[in-house]
Amino acid sequence: MSNNQGKRATAAHPFNIDNADVVFTTSDAVDFRVYKSILSVASPFFHAMFSLKQPASLGSPEPISVSEESEVFDALLRLCYPVDDPTFADLSQLEPVLEAAIKYQLDEASKLACSLLCGFAAAESLHVFAIACRLQLDKEALLAASMWKTSRNFNESSSNFSDTVAGACYTSDMPNITAACFYRLLQFCRGTPMPGLSSFISRCATSLPPYLRQQDNTDIDLLFDGDQADVVLRSTDGVQFRAHTLLFRLSGATVILDEGSCQSAPDANLPIVKVQLDSETLADLIRMVAPSPCSVSITDSRRLWSLAQVATRYEIPRIAAALKKEVRRLTPDRGLAVYLLAAAHGWKEEAELAARALAHRSLGDVYDSLMEDVSAAVYHSLLQFHHQCVVAMSEVIQQRVEGGHKQWKELSHARSATRPISVILPVVEKELYPFATASNGPCRGCGSSNTYSSNHKSCGYKVSPLLLSSEEVERALDARLSEVSTLC
């Protein structure tokens, strides 16, 4: 909130009464004259604001600027005033009012707006779900998700992505929520148990925040021991590191030091620069700009995410290049985390590499903590690409393996209805499946023996030809996957 000068219009009744004791000016320059007593009772936020001692003024009260437009602020105030409540034709009108009510801690207005939001849940379930997730309204999110789930039939095995849970649950409103909220919606609609999770909104506590972690920074202390440092860097959580500005200059990262505030050290030996990074991220950044042996491999996705944020925010190509190299190395084992990190920061090559690595794996139940920070749009793009890969693989199996497509589908379905087909030597799987499920029966080669055997002596039936055939199919699968359109 700040003062707003210039030519302004006056709001309609009852917000145009001259003896009102406070004036709010909206972003479209409309003045609302309001009684402090009403807002003080309705909101602890305004109560605290009006409790502050104001400078004496001989004229009319100084206006207070708000970021809301007049239409939104008018509806918000009417939910607080002893007048008729406003009506909302659609969610586009209601959403900003509800958001403002939460922002200004107007509890009663928030309850009224939430009730109105629920009224739209039957007709616009996914839109209501997205609004509820964005505004941290878990009960409303659950209501909307439940209504959506009961109103639709999903087909996870369909070649049409829009028929699957991931395709049907995504709308133009979903980019406004996190991938984690979208992931939990998909799990809910699939009926997949989520142990320990009672909320669509709650962030999964997978690690401690930086200021609670114990990190050994001995390597940095030793690197800049004695007179090797020319500056002391202080993190936002108060941890100090001795460093040398030359390393930041050579890495193109001096903007981080320039943005910080500088002050003299108590002993007047080295200047102290307060940088806007937590201690864990600052320590990792120093390691990245420092020469070996201080430079170490970083495998924790949260730490890599923080460094990627720094490289992007401050536009440091050298740090970004080093991080890209690191995530490429992690792709085989940490494909989902790498994809989320790369796609969110616009690293197209690394994102595509990770997505193609994930094409051979199941994604339905896989969660990563980076989902809590990434837009649902990023995750949805991966799921759509993954589905295209699954369809492509199914087509190859159907064309090349007699009866293999049905058998492969059955095996995949037996493991989990939500998991796509994996590339696991389909011909061998088809032929050897009976050996894994029964102890006796006719030989797969000649049919004369009552004992299963992959190498039947009487007919020379062997697994080797199966392996060769399966390798041909696998090569065909890889070729077909390479033709699948890249990520958007």
What does this structure look like?
The chain is mainly α and about 500 residues long. The chain has 3 domains: about 10-120, Potassium Channel Kv1.1, Chain A (2-Layer Sandwich); about 215-295, Potassium Channel Kv1.1, Chain A; about 295-488, no CATH class. It is about 50% helix and about 5% strand. The strands form 2 sheets. A 4-stranded mixed sheet has the order 1-3-2-4. A hairpin with a 5-residue loop joins strand 5 and strand 6. Helix 3 packs across helix 4 (about 90-105) and helix 4 (about 90-105) runs antiparallel to helix 5 (about 105-120). It is flat and about 95 Å long. The protein starts with 8 loop residues before the first strand and ends in a 6-residue tail after the last helix. The model is unreliable at about 205-215, about 405-425 and about 435-440 (pLDDT under 50).
